[in-house]
Amino acid sequence: MIKIAKFGGSSVASAEQFRKVKEIVEADSDRRFVVVSAAGKRFDGDNKITDLLLLVNAHVQYHVDCTGLLADIEQRFLDIASELGLKWPVHEKFEIFAKNIKKHSPEYIVARGEWFTAHLMAEYLGMPFVDAADVMVFHHNGEVDMERTASRLKDVMVRQGSFVLPGFYGATVDGQIKLFQRGGGDITGAILARCIDAGLYENWTDVSGFLSADPRIVDHPRSIRRITFDEMRELSYMGASVLQEEAIFPVREVNIPIQIKNTNRPQDEGTIIREKARIGEDEHLITGIAGKKDFISVHVKKAHMSGEVGFVRRALSVFERYGISVEHIPTGVDSFSVVVNGADVRDSIYSIVTDIRRELEPDDITMVDKLALLSVVGRNMSKRSGTSGKIFGALGEAGINIRMITQSSQEISIIMGVNNDDFERAVQVIYDRFVRDEMVTAS
Length: 443
Ligand code: ASP
What we know:
The chain is built from 14 helices and 16 strands. The protein is an alpha/beta fold. The strands form 3 sheets. A 7-stranded mixed sheet has the order 4-2-1-7-9-10-8, sandwiched between helices.
């Protein structure tokens, strides 16, 4: 089986981290294709190389001297090379880069973070370096040309047998460097996995996978060993993010599982993300709980609204006009609510309400702010009846008022709105009742 091993910025931040990577790669002969991010933070308060390079861009743009900044960046690579006894000519290459700094495009400059890191890693692992600019082909509009990319990647795979590929960037056919969004090394890894038909996409980072709840709210939450792509989307959307979202699609479409692993604790199992869980695996009722604060719900009421064609659409078109993305639309017979992110409507909410009042002439329109949304996610919830009732009951017993309820269409999540102030306690109540209790019963 081919495994793609992608190492994030913190996994390649220093010589010490490089050593861990080598141990991991050498522990499994299936790990022959390695993707790296640019060296990240070595400690709290440290700088990521990518951030420093963005700063270089700003200096160049405003014609401010950045010799000192460039020297700091070079030093990071020199340190890694000298500590590991690497021969790749960091100083020479950096000098050429720095000398021409004004001639380079901003994308080229930022992409040097992964380029230097990957060169060093390639030598250290004894694998060939493959430049992403030669294999990750972008259209001019910034989208990846999957056909060309797949054919080039397959080609180097066969020719080289193993390699280290810098993440985060690629180039158009005429050589213009293009970047993925921030954190985009994950996307490179996913595209590589897809293009060379890998059996597994390993994403090595600094956490041991997904946790079933935010550890700042719940003490030592259970780790999630297995999760489906749908469940993960629900949890990530609600703030429990480990992986760059865009990285999911390339592998998901062809059914390649992703395994999140911790470079600092390789012995931990991590989380495996697959399209479907296998039968009998982890029959937990709840996979995870996540949520976010500061939503606003606009409640619109009109008698006989259910018979009026286009009523909800007209209300939504008001939000659309203001460029506001809608999170949820719980509906009743003669009323509905539109839930939006508070920060998005900070400047426009009163105009939106005024427009709805004028254009739709509702009987009543009210607003609830400081609303937190809490998403309880579990692929097994749909199989067991009464789950939502039990969740609402537990919150009721704890004196927590539920202000809104919706369920995702595949029944893998139940989303509740509670007051911002009740948010942490609501997470704890649900966790204790459904996850901790299950752990106690199982042990
Ligand atoms: N180095 C890039 C960033 O910091 C991409 C990545 O880390 O995956 O955003």
